[in-house]
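Fig. S4 source data, part A: sequence.
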Amino acid sequence: MTPEFRYEIFKWDYNQDLNGSQEDCIPLQLQKLFYRLQEPLRKVEETKGLTKSFQWSSNEVYVQQDIQELCRVLFEAIELSFSLSDNNENNFVKKLYQGKTQSIIRCCECGYKSFNNDTFMDLSLPIMNMFEGIYNKSLEMAFMNFIKPESLDGDNKYFCEKCNKKVKAEKYTSFEYFPKILFLQLGRFYYDFATEQREKINDRVPFPLILNCNKYLKEYKDIKYNESESENEEYCLNDAEEIINNYIKEGNNVYELFSIVIHSGTANGGHYYAYIKSFEDGDWYCFNDGNVSYIDKNEIKDIFGEKNSEKINKYKSTNTAYYLSYRKIEKGEKKLTIKDMVISDKLKELCKEENEVIIENEKIEEEKRKFIKMGVNPNKEYTFNIYFEIQKNGNELKNESLNDKIENNSDEFEEENNDCESKSIKLLGKK
């Protein structure tokens, strides 16, 4: 549901000499998966090809992977594969997802500043940090605390090169620019050193559908911030055009929420699913494994978190927003549609043979589902087993008893194992 990403993936050209085997090539497996989602063969698509390209074993597939870590590994693999291809000089991953910050230390005596530049593919915003005395009650409060100056004083004084001595100073982070797609991780997991256990924070953290990042490019002291407004559900779920237009007057760093990865469970395990706004029809949907269903945008407030969560049993499973995706609103920009997704003949040909195998396997599995296989032991004194199959007639089984089945096919028994201590007999009757 990020058309900009899908569009670039489809543009990429697989080269076996440069990119290795098809099975191990992550971008190619993404291409195949996106192709099958766009030109579906079945209602639900499997991801075995993609997870196999991650070098995951069958056991690792069932281990809960952290979405933030997965994105970073995935992007690195894509960047590496794309850099090996002659016709893909532009790094679209960085263009879509990379932002830039500056870490600044300012001397309080002479005003001298030292700078350290850094880039980010996502931002981790803590909800609570007892050691630093941080408790963020909304996404916007978390942003404010992210850029809030920290005092360096006492034993933690800063050595100023200009003053040539240790001085009191301020340390803070400044945003240089934001990416087109902004990933924000809410820090809901932490290690409690008192209990020596990993814990999950279920506290309520509202986040807006429309995020104005223009103000975070300013210095902390110059930002107008309304704490009560940022915690108001009605304000958070308002995506009116008037609000967007007012924000754009301040600058072009206005973002629209389009994806929420939700964690259901405790710190020791759980399940991920997502609410995603479709770029095709503008509606919100819940993507939960093989099920996709429409939701009203007002349901988003249900995954903000719990009020008074300290009263909640820490082992209770709760559904809370964990990873947010915002897209920059760019007035006049042509929005990508399904029609813009050009699938190469080469990719279609690669998938054609695999699709035929998939269809054939689906037919075999469907045929198997028409039968019920059962085993019976008519005499407990001996290890004597009879296996038989009954064909389903529509949604009902044929009305035929086991005795009738044996009597009608008594001439069709075959001895499979002539072992003196164990004898297995299979009923080769009509289906």
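Fig. S4 source data, part B ends here. The longest helix spans residues 345-368.
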